[in-house]
Amino acid sequence: MSETEEDRADALFHALSDRTRRDIMRRVLAGEHSVSALAAKYDMSFAAVQKHVAVLQKSGLLVKRRSGREQLATGDVDAVRAVSSMLAELEQVWRGRIARIDELIATEPQWKE
Questions:
Q1: pTM (two decimals)
Q2: Which helix (H) or strand (E) element contains residue 3?
Q3: Residue 45 CB-half CA count within 13 A
Q4: Residue 24: how many other CB atoms lie within 10 Å
Q5: 78: which of 39, 101, 111, 112 lies 20 to 30 Å off by Cα?
Q6: What are the CB-based long-range contacts (under 8 Å, 24+) for 28-34?
Q7: Rounded CA separation 51/57 (Å)
Q8: pLDDT tens digits for 39-87?
Q9: SS3 state of residue 32
C-alpha cells in the first residue's frame, strides 16, 4: 500500500475503533439522519455526537449535507466496502501463513514413542 492508502486505512480504522461511531454508522447506513436526531439517541452532549460525526466524515465513512437548518448524515457504502476489502486482504495474508505452517507440520517426521 502507498503512504496515502495507509493514511486512509488509519483514518478508517480509527473512526471505526469507537463503539459510538460504529453505532452511528449502523444508523446512517440504514438511512439518512439529521445530526440532532442522532444526538438524541445517545446519553452525551450534542457537541460530543457532532465530534463523532466529524471523525466519521473526515475518514470518508459518512457524508453530510445541509437541508435548511439541519445537517443530514448518510453512510458511504463505498467507503465501508473499502474497509471490507482491506480486511479481506489481511485475512488472505493470515490464511497463507496458516497454510504454510500446516505444510511444515505435515512434512515434519512423526515422532513415535
A1: 0.75
A2: helix 3-16
A3: 3
A4: 27
A5: 39
A6: 28/56, 28/62, 28/73, 28/74, 28/75, 29/75, 29/77, 29/80, 31/74, 32/72, 32/73, 32/74, 33/72, 33/73, 34/70, 34/71, 34/72, 34/73
A7: 10
A8: 999 999 999 999 999 999 999 999 999 999 999 999 998 888 888 888 8
A9: coil
Give the chain's largest Cα–Cα span. Answer: 80
Indicate the residue type of 44. M
Question: What residue has cell string 461511531?
Answer: 21
Whether residue 12 contacts residue 86, with contact meaning beta carbons closer than 8 Å, is answered with: yes
Cell matching residue 109: 517426521
The three cell numbers of residue 89 are: 486482504
Distance of CA 101 to the CA centre of its chain: 30
The span from the CA of 88 to the CA of 91, in Å, is 5
Q: What percentage of the chain exceeds 90 in pLDDT? A: 56
Q: Strand pairing of 33-34 and 70-75? A: antiparallel
